[in-house]
């Protein structure tokens, strides 16, 4: 099994925790896994990109252009920014949440109203999730990342028990129940 995942989002959405959960999952499955994090302007709400590669043997931690099986996007505009990493036949699993980037906040640009429609016109398979509403329903908007891990796990047919174990081994105990609920709800998408 060789899987390349590019996780994209905005600073504070938990892309790094999501990548660590996937890394632990790969270890539990006996796979080699490499992670690489690009923080950018994450402290100011800018793009955050995390590369996750898992296989029997992984040489490089970076997902190359046109080599991602999945772009896991925690914000819809970020999904459009990183489509060039998706390989033919790949899929975008996207949270439909809209977070305004600084140029939009400052009034220099407008947030595109048809981001996901533009992505779909390129013939790309898109799985949409309202992960923010789901996360809020289990107790915290900060659980968007684990909702998305649940959706990804279902789509990729990942071993649900191993993924649950990976979450238990990664998430701090005081947030565990909420994150397990978020994973379950995401898995139902």
Q: Mind describing the biggest β-sheet?
A: 6 strands, mixed
Give the class from helix and strand content and strand pairing. Answer: alpha/beta
Order of helices and strands: EHEEEHEHHEHHHH
Low-confidence stretches: none
Cross-sheet strand order for the largest sheet: 2-3-1-4-5-6
Q: What is the CATH class designation?
A: Alpha Beta
Helix content: 25-40%
Distance between the termini: 23 Å
Taken as a percent bin, the fraction of beta residues is: 15-25%
- CATH topology-level name: Pyruvate-ferredoxin Oxidoreductase, domain 3
The CATH superfamily turns out to be Pyruvate-ferredoxin oxidoreductase, PFOR, domain III
Mean pLDDT: 92
What's the CATH architecture?
3-Layer(aba) Sandwich
Our Rg estimate from Cα atoms comes to 16 Å
- As for the number of domains, it is 1
Total DSSP E strands? 6
Total helical segments? 8
Shape: globular
Keywords:
alpha/beta, Pyruvate-ferredoxin Oxidoreductase, domain 3, globular, 6-stranded mixed beta sheet, single chain, 189 residues, 24% strand, 8 helices
In short:
The protein has helices spanning 15-28, 76-81, 102-105, 115-120, 131-137, 144-156, 160-168, 176-187; strands spanning 3-10, 32-38, 47-55, 68-73, 86-95, 125-129. It contains 8 helices and 6 strands, in the order E-H-E-E-E-H-E-H-H-E-H-H-H-H.
